[in-house]
Amino acid sequence: MKVLAVTGYKPMEMGIFKIDDSKIEYVKETIKRRLIPLIEEGLEWILLSGQMGVEIWTGEVILELKEEYDIKVGIFPPFLNQEQRWPEAQQEQYHLLLDSVDFTQPLYQKEYEGAYQFKAKDQWLLDKSDACLILYDEETGGSPGYFLDKAKAYQEKHEYEIYMITPFDIDETVQEMMMEDPAYWLN
């Protein structure tokens, strides 16, 4: 596998409403721990659409990993100015990420017109990647479910891996990070 598409929840779907919420650290660490073995096995590119939440956090994780690994990240928003209605802090975060990635290009060279742009983005990510990683809870549902459904249908006709990160995986990371702190063992 050389190319991986990554997606998942938007912050509000995870109960995260501040850009500096401490929960983000655990989500990013879980993503990092999932990506490192894939990179060590030959993963070369991460593809993102750049939406708020998991995709932006993944981009930030990749920028950190670039210090140690030869990995590239590309952001392919479905249309121009996808961030224009986002809160200002998330817009700034997005622009910093766009300035730092290896490649970025909107799939449609026009602003939002309709849901067809999101559907086309999902199909483009599937067509251009060898596998996907989705942060999603099938019991809770939410917006990543649309991509997951498309990926499962795509998988029926193509050799395509679907990797998942679940809330259980994040809980496991929280526990591991707590146990890595020497103070944890003093109680």
Kindly summarize this structure in a few lines.
This is UPF0398 protein N782_02905. The protein is α/β, with parallel strands linked by helices and 187 residues long.
How would you portray this structure in words?
InterPro entries: YspA. This protein is an alpha/beta fold and 187 residues long. The protein has a single domain, classed as 3-Layer(aba) Sandwich (Rossmann fold). 45% of the residues lie in helices and 14% in strands. A 6-stranded parallel β-sheet has the order 4-3-2-1-5-6, with helices on both faces. Helix 5 (144-157) links the parallel strand 5 (131-135) and strand 6 (161-165). The protein starts with a strand and ends in a 7-residue tail after the last helix. The model has no long low-confidence stretch (mean pLDDT 96).
